[in-house]
Each structure stands twice: as structure tokens, then as C-alpha cells.
Specification:
- It is a single chain.
- It contains 13 helices and 29 strands.
- By secondary structure, the protein is of the alpha+beta class.
- Strands 18, 19, 20, 21 and 22 form a five-stranded antiparallel beta sheet that branches.
- The chain is globular and about 90 Å long.
- The N and C termini lie far apart (105 Å).
- The C terminus is likely disordered.
Length: 688
């Protein structure tokens, strides 16, 4: 039998399932014109849903359990030899790679027959592995894994988190509720909504007030935090987690403090097992001038972006901002430990008009990938153009952009986003969202705001009313690593040139340009100030009034509310206008987020602990102690180095000192010999 294997596009790219270019692919025998691929009924005609379900099936525990056996049969140990015979995995000898050299067959008929047999039946691939392939960790173990992601905490791969179901789903799913409840035991507790009081700390600004809100934030190193307020002033924070370990939790625990019995069993997991509390403070350094951005205006909002990569021997953060309000780009290197600005450069006339938006994304080693580490930055301007800049951590600063991109017909840019993993960037104006290739700057496609129908405003919409939707004037824009783009739109209902209602919504698009879903934002929550996607792209954090919402990025459950990080514990006094989150960051590393930091209004900082912070704090403390001991032990060597000189010339200088000492000793002995001293016989034997 002939077996066809699925290509990678079945799990990542829904574009190949649609004949978007309307190519003439012919007709079937019954006369039906070939076009789009016919999908199974459960996909409901959506290629995006089909691909997502296929990817979830590929990443499920059942497939993860069986996939190593398939690899052993096709590429591994069971492809050839005794193991292949035992597994009944034996084929005709011509199908094996390298079994016959077709070019060496002299008989024309035999060579042609061999080529036909190989072409029609196929060939086995080259054997790559000679040992049994390792198995992937199960979903339950990965949630407790040391190197967790935020999606692991919610288990977004297969578990439905929303308990609110429709009546129809409730009637049809009564029989499967017990099974699903058992599978979702590990996510009954939500990291933000159900967190105890000891898991977060609120650092308010010192009196007197009022204070400017923090608009951008970045966690740096292992215990530092840098923030910028709306007036362009830098704020420095230092934090630490003080863990409390019980005597019972000893050597049997795994990486995050769970015992081996808890890991192997299916019992409920307490994600708040990390007992302890935060110790945090605002650093107030002594300085001659206040560390701040080169330019800030009270009439305009501050445009600033902080890098995730540490520059200058992994000690300084790169800060990009508006240079002069007329198109200049400012670059600064800020030391989060000393609270000082180490370098500053202003590139004049980077754009023809003021800079309105900017974003950065790590590349290379900074993003957990190979290659030279650094940052890619995209800068938008009011002149309707976008520029792409590349900053390498081991090179000098660039004074000109790598690419310039246009496509908004001179309209001001509201928001920008960039994804080095997808290789694209985006810019948003009021009427369109343009996607560009970061390799050559070519426009991939442009998106228009979704037109809201009467279903969204059925209760207030009258005949003759005009419904207009445009992209909102906010820097909130984000890419998902799964191939989605999340934006914010504003919809207005006009009746005889009078504004009846205005609504803000979060829109989910695919990078192919298809609109997936919308989510209306409540008026008291305001317009989102920032959108931050998780590293795997399965969820997005929405920073807005009163809370930080966690929404699911999916075509099966698009923009579904997963969790909420409320900025006030009091439901009565939780005024969205007073408590606003402007930015959020996770650290201390991308691969291991154990703390979340939110930049809030009134100059306040909010820290929130995540699972595994106690174990990380203990490991970091050991590393700090080892580094301190190493520095102490290195003091004598440093003293010798300072006294003698560089290490490169240490040997020659040491030999020179030896020769000088030898000459002085010989001269001293000769003097003693000439004076008749008895010391000469001790060093030299006189000739007889």
C-alpha cells in the first residue's frame, strides 16, 4: 500500500488550503471545478481551525507518546537490522537508501526498471539515529517543569478553562465532564486571579504627589527593574524574593519543589506552593542631573522603548526614544545597577516628522536562538513612514536605518510591531495595517479594519445610522508566534452627524489577512495601552484600566478571557481611571519567567510572583555567593597583576626579575670572596 506523509504546512500554514490567487487547477470527472481544499466537517470550512486542531493533535500527549516509535521505524533504530525484523518493518531492498547505485547499472532495461520501481514505490530515508529516540515530557510533568512558559501554567494546549458553557454544550457534554475535570485539575488555580496576598507587592511613589504614570518597564539582570514615566524620567527598582522552605521539602523534590509522588500521580497541583514574600525598594541614587530621556513634552505622550538585550558586556539596557519632536531618534545606554546614563546619541532627521511609535524585538542569542545577539527596532512616524533599525550587542550603534517602508499614504502611524521569528513587521494608521518583510522591506499585505455589522449594536442601531470602524490611536499592537496579529479598533455610531456611541474592541487577524474574531472592551476599562504576547504566542496580555487581562489567541476559542490581574483587591474602589496598567514585563529571562512586573499609574510598580520563584531565588543566591567568593579569591591575583603588569608580559617580566636577582647575588658573592669571607665556600668550590 502507498502511504502519503503530511507536509509541515498541515500544522503551521493554512494558506496552502485555499486557492487565493484563483489559479486554474482543472476540473474533476464530474465537471466540478477544482479550487479550495475540501476540509472535514469539524473544521467548519475554516483552514485556520483545521491547522490549529492538527497542531494541537500533534502536540497532544497521545501523539507525543507514539511519535518516538514512529521516528524509530522511519529514521531510527528499527529501520534496518535485527530491530527492523522484530518490528515487521522490512521492505524490498531497492527501497533502502544507498542499497543500489543506479548509475553503475550498465543494462539499460534493468536501470530503467529500477528507476521506475524507486519512483513509484519510493525510498526509505537515510537512517539518522541508532539509539531509541527519547520521549517528550507529558503535559502534567511539563507544567511542573523548571523551564516553564506562561502557557504551561494555564495549560493552553488542550484544556478548556472557561466554566461558562452554553446550554447546548452543557447538555451534550455531561458525560465527558468527569473526564475533562480530571484532566484539568492542574489548572484549577489561576496564577493571577487566585494568587495569595503574599504573591504580589505594590511599590507606590514617595510623597508628595501627584506623580506621573510609568509608561514603560523592563526587568533586567536578576534583581533590577528599569521604568520610564510619562515625563521621560527614569526610575530604578531593586527586588528580591525571600523564600520560606519547609523542613519536609528536602531532597525528594523536583526542580520546583514538587515531590516525585506528586509528579507521577494525577493529584491536584498547588501552583502557589512557593511560600515567601517580596522584598523590593525604589533606588534613589545621588546624581547631579536627573536621569531622563533627551526630549519630552507635556503636550505629547512619551515615545520610548526598552530593549530586552543587555549591551556592553551584558550590563546596560538600550533605550530608544523621540529625540527632538521633529523626527530625530535618541539612543541611550542606561545602567540599571548604578542608575546612570552611560552613553547617548541623537540621530537627527531620522524621519521627516515626529516619531509616534516604536517597538523592539530580540534576535539571536537574546531571543534564545543562534547567531549574534541584539535587537531589531521598528520606528513609526507622523509622516506615514516606518524605519527598521538593527542593533548588535557587540557592534557600534547604527546611524542610519536598514530599511524604510511606506504604504499609509502619508497618514500618521499609531502603532508598530515586529516579530523576528516570523520575519515580518507591522505598522498601523487609522485606515490600514501594513505588513512588511523585514528582509527586503517589501509590503506583504495590508489589512483594513473589520466592518461591524448590526449584530454588535443591534439594541441601539436604527435605520440610517452610520457605523464606522477604524484602528484606534494607541500603541497597542502585537504579533503572535502562531501567525496572528492583535490590534485595537474603535467603532463609532453616527446619527445625523451626532455621535451616539463609541466602542473599543480587540481584533484578531491572521498574518494572511483574515479577520478571526473581535472582543468588545467595557467602557470603564478604557483603551488598551499595550499588548504583550507570550513567547509561544498562545495568549496575549492586555494592559488597560483596572487590570491586566489574559486572552487566548486561537481560532477555536478566539480572544477568550483566561485570567485577570486586578490592580486593586477592593471591588468597590477599583476605579479603572485611577488604577491603570501601561506596560508589563516578565523575567528574569524569557525562557524562565518567575516574576511579572506592571507599570502603573501614579508612578507605581506592581510585582507578582509566578510558579517556581522560590527555587529560582535559591539558585540565584547560590550563584551570587559563588561570584562573591570568586571575586574575593581573585583579589590577590589582581594585586599581583597590578604590581607586575599585564598577564601577557608576566612571564618575560618574571624572568627579567630573576636575572637581576641572580646578578646581584653573584656580585655579592664575589665581593665576599675578595674580602676573604668564609661565605664564598658555601656558594662555590675553589679550584685546587
Amino acid at each position: 500500500a502507498e502511504v502519503k506523509e503530511l507536509t509541515p504546512e498541515f500544522y503551521c500554514n493554512p494558506a496552502f488550503l485555499k486557492n487565493a490567487n484563483e489559479l486554474k487547477l482543472g476540473t474533476m470527472q464530474d465537471g466540478e471545478v477544482l479550487g479550495d481544499v475540501i476540509l472535514p466537517p469539524w473544521a467548519k470550512g475554516s483552514p485556520e481551525k483545521f491547522v490549529e486542531v492538527m497542531r494541537l493533535a500533534l502536540e497532544s500527549d497521545v501523539c507525543s507518546e507514539m511519535l518516538p516509535d514512529w521516528i524509530d521505524l522511519i529514521f531510527g533504530k528499527k529501520q534496518q537490522g535485527k530491530s527492523a525484523i522484530e518490528a515487521n518493518n522490512v521492505f524490498f531492498y531497492l527501497t533502502y537508501y544507498g542499497s543500489v547505485d543506479v548509475a553503475s547499472i550498465e543494462d539499460e532495461a534493468l536501470r530503467h526498471a529500477t528507476e521506475l520501481q524507486i519512483a513509484h514505490f519510493g525510498q526509505c530515508p537515510m537512517q539518522l539515529f541508532y539509539r531509541k529516540h527519547a520521549k517528550k515530557r507529558s503535559r502534567e510533568i511539563s507544567v511542573r517543569s523548571r523551564r516553564q512558559t506562561l502557557s504551561n501554567l494555564y495549560d493552553l494546549n488542550s484544556v478548556t478553562l472557561d466554566d461558562k458553557r452554553s446550554k447546548k454544550e452543557g447538555q451534550e457534554g455531561k458525560e465527558t465532564d468527569e473526564k475533562s475535570d480530571k484532566q484539568s485539575e492542574i489548572v484549577k488555580q489561576l496564577p493571577f486571579s487566585n494568587a495569595p496576598m503574599s504573591y504580589w507587592v505594590h511599590l507606590g511613589a514617595p510623597p508628595p504627589g501627584p506623580h506621573a504614570p510609568l509608561v514603560s518597564i523592563r526587568l533586567a539582570l536578576s534583581d533590577r527593574c528599569l521604568a520610564v514615566d510619562s515625563k521621560g524620567i527614569f526610575h530604578f527598582f531593586r527586588w528580591a524574593w525571600k523564600p520560606e522552605f519547609n523542613d519536609e521539602s528536602s531532597g525528594d523534590d523536583d526542580d520546583d519543589g514538587y515531590t516525585s509522588e506528586e509528579t507521577s500521580s494525577g493529584t491536584d497541583i498547588d501552583i502557589f506552593k512557593d511560600a515567601g514574600c517580596f522584598v523590593a525598594q525604589r533606588e534613589l541614587f545621588s546624581f547631579r542631573t536627573i536621569p531622563r530621556l533627551p526630549f519630552s513634552s507635556a503636550a505629547r505622550k512619551v515615545i520610548v522603548c526598552l530593549s530586552q538585550t543587555l549591551f556592553a558586556n551584558r550590563s546596560l539596557l538600550l533605550v530608544l526614544s523621540d529625540g527632538d519632536g521633529r523626527g530625530a531618534l535618541a539612543m541611550q545606554l542606561v545602567d540599571p545597577v548604578k542608575g546612570a546614563i552611560r552613553g547617548e546619541v541623537i540621530v537627527p532627521a531620522a524621519h521627516a516628522d515626529r516619531i509616534t511609535a516604536m517597538k523592539m524585538d530580540p534576535i539571536g542569542t537574546a531571543a534564545g536562538q543562534g547567531g549574534v545577539g541584539g535587537e531589531l527596532a521598528i520606528v513609526g512616524s507622523a509622516d506615514g513612514s516606518v524605519s527598521l533599525w538593527r542593533f548588535i550587542s557587540s557592534h557600534f550603534w547604527p546611524l542610519r536605518p536598514r530599511l524604510r517602508m511606506m504604504g499609509h499614504a502619508g497618514a500618521a502611524i499609531h502603532a508598530v510591531a515586529i516579530s523576528s521569528s516570523l520575519g515580518i513587521c507591522a505598522s498601523v494608521s487609522s485606515e490600514r495595517c501594513c505588513l512588511f518583510d523585514i528582509g527586503n522591506g517589501a509590503m506583504v499585505r495590508n489589512l483594513s479594519p473589520p466592518q461591524k455589522g448590526s449584530d454588535s449594536f443591534e439594541s441601539i442601531l436604527l435605520e440610517g445610522d452610520n457605523v464606522a470602524t477604524e484602528f484606534a490611536d494607541t500603541p497597542a499592537l502585537s504579533f503572535s508566534a502562531l501567525g496572528f496579529i492583535i490590534s485595537v479598533c474603535s467603532t463609532k455610531i453616527m446619527r445625523k452627524d451626532e455621535l451616539i456611541k463609541e466602542a473599543t474592541s480587540i481584533e484578531l487577524f491572521t498574518v494572511e489577512g483574515k479577520h478571526v474574531s473581535s472582543r468588545i472592551i467595557q467602557p470603564h476599562e478604557g483603551v488598551p495601552s499595550n499588548l504583550v504576547s507570550t513567547i509561544d504566542g498562545r495568549a496575549v496580555f492586555v494592559c488597560g484600566g483596572g487590570k491586566v487581562s489574559v486572552l487566548l489567541v486561537s481560532t477555536l476559542q478566539p480572544l477568550k478571557l483566561v485570567d485577570e490581574w486586578k490592580l486593586s483587591t477592593d471591588e468597590v474602589t477599583n476605579d479603572a481611571s485611577k488604577h491603570v496598567a501601561y506596560d508589563i514585563d516578565f523575567g528574569p529571562t524569557i525562557a524562565r519567567p518567575v516574576v511579572a512586573a506592571a507599570a502603573c499609574s501614579e508612578g507605581a510598580l506592581r510585582l507578582h510572583a509566578l510558579q517556581g520563584i522560590s527555587k529560582w531565588s535559591q539558585e540565584n543566591q547560590r550563584t551570587s555567593v559563588s561570584t562573591a567568593v570568586g571575586n574575593v579569591l581573585a583579589l590577590p591575583a589582581q594585586t599581583v597583576k597590578n604590581a607586575i603588569g599585564g598577564v601577557a608580559g608576566f612571564g618575560s617580566k618574571f624572568m627579567g626579575f630573576g636575572k637581576e636577582i641572580g646578578k646581584e647575588a653573584v656580585s655579592a658573592v664575589k665581593e665576599r670572596e675578595g674580602g676573604g669571607g668564609g661565605g664564598g665556600g658555601f656558594f662555590f668550590r675553589k679550584k685546587r
